[in-house]
Amino acid sequence: MAWIFFSLLAAFIWAVANIVDKHVLSKYKVQPVVFVFIISAIGFIIGLLFLLFNQIEFSMLLLIGLINGMIYPSANMLYFKAIKLEEVSRVVPWFAISPLLVVVGATIFLNEILTASQYQGVAILIIGLFLIAVKKGFRVKPNKWMLYILFSSLLNAFGFLLEKYLLNSLSLFHLFAVIEIGAFMGFLPYLFFYWPTIKKTFNQNRGAVKIIALNEAMGIMATFSMLVAIAIGLVSLVSVLGSMQYLFLLILALVVSIAYPKILKEELQGGVIALKAIAIVLIITGIYLIT
């Protein structure tokens, strides 16, 4: 059951990173593309170091891993385009689509057949994760941002499935290295277009850049932890447990809002509290059925 630990560890680290990202975005008004650039650049350096200290023979599978890494910057940029068009509280719940796509894709392409109770647990857990992210004022209104989230979820789900397939033949460390290098290569078109914005931020807001760098390095640790979980567990279940990030995010947001209300304020009133309570019960039930 080590895959459970690494899945939840990745989810927790990502939740912490989300809190810091939100604080930096609000306080320093840094453009989202700067975050994607920094995590891509740090990942590139780490990927090169992994290759230097691990003997590697280049193959077609490694090339596929490199291409797989190149899709992640686009998935991140689609997410940021969505939150520019709509409030993040209304965008985040729709990311429950991604683990659902992974479960379906793993059944079709990787022959990962779960038990009936596990499928029930997946469904219940995804519903709970959706509800945990819902905030006051949530509404369903078809819009362009939903397309961005759909494509972002498709790219993330495709990446998870491809990683599981590649890990059947490749070393964990080699795949991690080429994914991180590929992510930087995938960001290069955005770097060309947004370079003036990135350069301005580095020149005028170095304090924010340092915070972002530490935070995104932590995010890369979460990526590695998730890759470990995918290597030793069923990718369908790993992706669902990885979405526990939303529950951790809620808990951390509550703690921070109580201790440091000037940094973050989580509003929980009336029906929203009841909804969160129901969501937590569903999440616990789902985890029990899955494991």
Molecular structure report:
- With 291 residues, this protein is mainly α.
- The protein has one domain.
- Helix content is 81%, strand content 0%.
- It is built from 13 helices and no strands.
- The chain is globular and about 50 Å long.
- The model has no long low-confidence stretch (mean pLDDT 85).
* Largest pleated sheet: none
Instruction: Provide the domain count.
Output: 1
Shape: globular
Give Rg in angstroms: 19 Å
Cα distance spanning the termini: 8 Å
Series of H and E elements: HHHHHHHHHHHHH
* Oligomeric state, counting identical vs distinct chains: single chain
Q: Tally the helices: what do you get? A: 13
Residue fraction in strands: under 5%
Total strand count, please?
0
Please state the average pLDDT score: 85
Q: Structural class per helix/strand content? A: mainly alpha
Q: Which parts are unreliable, with pLDDT below 50 for 5 consecutive residues or more?
A: none
Helix content: over 70%
List the SSEs and their pairings.
Elements: H1 2-28, H2 32-52, H3 60-70, H4 72-85, H5 88-91, H6 97-109, H7 116-133, H8 144-167, H9 172-204, H10 206-232, H11 235-242, H12 245-259, H13 271-290
Brief digest:
The protein is an all-alpha fold. It is built from 13 helices and no strands.
Descriptive labels:
single chain; 291 residues; mainly alpha; 13 helices; 81% helix
